[in-house]
Amino acid sequence: MRWTHLPLDRLLAVRIQDLGLELEESPLQARLDELHGELERKGMRFRPYAWLSTEWFTPDDTTGFAVPFYLAHPRLVRLERSQMLEVEGATRKGCMKIMRHEAAHALDNAYGLRRRRSWREAFGAAGAPYSSAYTPDPNSRAFVQHLDYWYAQSHPLEDYAETFAVWLQPGSRWKRRYEGWPALDKLRYVDGLMADLARRAPRRTTRRREEPLHRVRMTLGEYYEQKKAIYASEGTPAFNGQLRHSFPRGEGAAGGAPRLAHFLRRHRGRLVRQVAEVTGQHRYLLDHVVREITLRARTEDLRLSRGEDDALLDAAIVLTSLSSQFVYGGHPRYQR
């Protein structure tokens, strides 16, 4: 692959379809094999397939799921991190968590689980509309805690997928971990449902691949330009407004003003600790909001307008306000 050693500007000019990537020839194949092994040990006949695309997703009419292309090569993992500050699924643990979640959606499509009355009684109506924002309760015990942002709370289908992922994860000890939680009833339901499905052939199997990599004509540069634009445009005006009020964009900042994203990455732990002590907010919640602010600061090129001590105080004030918006106003970004 000649592009692996290209400088950044030339790499961003490469079309995604020209990367020549195949999931089967990447480290992702071992992850998929591991997922299949987990299903086999649970007595399941179902085996989801996977393909490379632009993001994680499971189309409603397929029994497989898409995996983002950048996870297929270390050079692209580094590129994703440099462009977006984080890489969803870069570690083995993180990748397996998402694969188990997506496998749950594929299994639902294969067996038509959402149409069962018992499924609806456990998780709710699958036809409920998705919202780009939801209001998580970090202290709720009615839902399992698996993916970030308390994703099980976003929709009945995600509640099911998260519950299945916890059930499937080796060594999760879910009976002990969720003892006394209402979420344990959902885990027991999934346990019984999967025992009923064990060794049953799926009612439906497909091999369709939506938006496969060889059809993605945009360049890497165009891909990241679009991705950053989407992330920057999401959220409430208040969210963006509060950030820009305290931290100017690059073109409006003093020459050589430090980047807010770099500042937040250095002081993330201290900032979370101080705000948690003052407000009593959940540290896990605050940490996620700092990551959200950091991403927004990166995509909008926000800078410091004052010295570091004053900037830390400004950041603490913004974090206190925005963490309340996160809980009570919904979170605009995380959806699958």
Could you tell me how far the N terminus lies from the C terminus, measured between alpha carbons in angstroms?
30 Å
User: With helices defined by DSSP (H or I, 4 residues minimum), what is the helix count?
Assistant: 13
What is the 3D shape? globular
Low-confidence segments, given as residue ranges, are 328-336
Assembly type:
single chain
* SSE run: HHEEHHHHHHHHHHH
How many β-strands, per DSSP? 2
- The strands making up the biggest β-sheet line up spatially as 1-2
Residues in helix, %: 40-55%
How would you characterize the largest beta sheet?
2 strands, parallel
Strand percentage, roughly?
A: under 5%
What structural class is derived from the secondary structure elements? mainly alpha
Number of domains: 2
- Rg, rounded, reads 21 Å
**What is the residue-averaged pLDDT?**
89
How would you describe the overall organization of this protein?
It is a single chain. With 336 residues, this protein is mainly alpha-helical. The chain has 2 domains: 2-197, no CATH class; 234-329, no CATH class. Helix content is 51%, strand content 3%. It has helices at residues 8-11, 28-41, 74-84, 92-111, 117-123, 156-168, 174-177, 183-197, 220-233, 237-246, 260-279, 283-299, 308-329; strands spanning 49-53, 64-68. Strands 1-2 form a two-stranded parallel ribbon. The longest helix is centred in the C-terminal third of the chain and has 22 residues, at 308-329. The two termini are 30 Å apart. Residues 328-336 have low confidence and may be disordered.
